[in-house]
């Protein structure tokens, strides 16, 4: 595993204190915390032998300190209690799987678990089974059980969690311990606690409170924000002393200092976060763009799957997604449009043969309307051809040589794409047919509509979007929502009953699901679109169908689940190849800081003073003032405007005083990192542009405020605030 530069230095510098502390630490709780911290270092530091010998020393201490009843007391040979037993179990449970052959703690773990289960009083743990439960003892006991395999499904764990949830404990230490214990027992109703923890991180905290909260939040990587690396920067600044790393905290009311608690939790936070950052759960948008581009056929189109002949429908949906990529792959788009131009003649011939608009013609014409440079004459010719298949001027002919909802929806959508606005008559006809979805019209012995189906309804709703009112579409959208299958997806229909009364359910379709979700999201239906995007991204990994991939990728971007360009994606590339660092002359300190970071990550920085010209290829960093250049070339999803002393970013207004914004971007062949800032922050810019903060940047962009809040003339890490993380 590669450990981030700054994390590695903190971890290595912590060894001196952690390995020497057992010489004077004689109680179980502190020994347990030291063992947990040293275990987190295993395999991540250079001086592995010292770490291993210190781990063995502490394991031996805890084994000999265990009482015959299986528990531990505050000191060896003292009466057992759940608090120290919980800490000891969490510590030795964490070392049992380390590849150190001489460690065998299985019997100690079994005895410790038996002690905790026997001392449970039905709600939680007190100092004895007869005393009332105490939140602190209970949460640490849960931690110890959770590390050793006990989960929320166990009755004892479930009751203890219920007891803890009955208290609205708001102290930073208890919030941290709850998050740690809940992580290990698998209790996932923690969103409120996580929010509270991040709120606390942005405020005033003691070193041990900050260290505990920071470690706890690293256990929830899916919720990480840039507030976490900011907290690590603060911890590093507080704990760095020459060649070692150690934090201290007054032990009120005693005239002593506690170094074990804050240092151990801080080290576990640095070690844990180095693991978190190495995990990638979802592809980046640039990887999605590359995947769709890799599936393009030599003739410019896309088939339904890789290697199949090009078809209009997959080509259309591939282009719809690629239009969101940054930078837009114009060469590939133009090549696809050329394929559609060449294919148009055969698509029109099929329409003439069948006497109605076909799917192949529909998607071919949409490609040309949206992605080609048709002359006015070509556009009018296409409009005239489409209108040839209208029935009495109000609808389009389909099956059975009568007006059909499907072909009428095709006609409306095509005219809209060709900038023809007069589609009220066919829209009104569609709305007159039904009050809940659309299907096929049958004209024997008289015209009736068959059962509505999802694909026809989707196309009609897409056609009527922007034409009919929300009130007119609401019953049809409600019908569409009601067709959702039990697994949350959509199929051709929800259920169907045949002549013999047998009920069948249609198989789910990723295509219909995405198109349904897009419509429902457009009209404000309150579904969990992030969860659906996550599910669909996992499902589409197993699919080889290009339409499904393109639709899911597009939905993931447009729903906001995946920003088009992520800071973490750009940061991950800083160690690869050459990076040109462009900067205005006054911003040389910031340019030099980012150059040092690029070099420490393994990249090659090349400084270019005063050169802020547009770059189309390669990797680049731009450092300058607000309004110094147009970022839209590299990232069209972050809009910045400057008005006097204020900066507006994606609709949010900020004072320019002390403001710093970091934005990711792309060139045609590389990545871009944009740093815009108020010139007054330059003396303290290293508090933001440092390996720890940069390594763990998250989101679509981050806005910082850097101000001397206490008026002492110097900026400290706790005076750097994150105002927004997109």
From TrEMBL:
<dbReference type="InterPro" id="IPR008930">
    <property type="entry name" value="Terpenoid_cyclase/PrenylTrfase"/>
</dbReference>
<dbReference type="InterPro" id="IPR018247">
    <property type="entry name" value="EF_Hand_1_Ca_BS"/>
</dbReference>
<protein>
    <recommendedName>
        <fullName>Squalene cyclase C-terminal domain-containing protein</fullName>
    </recommendedName>
</protein>
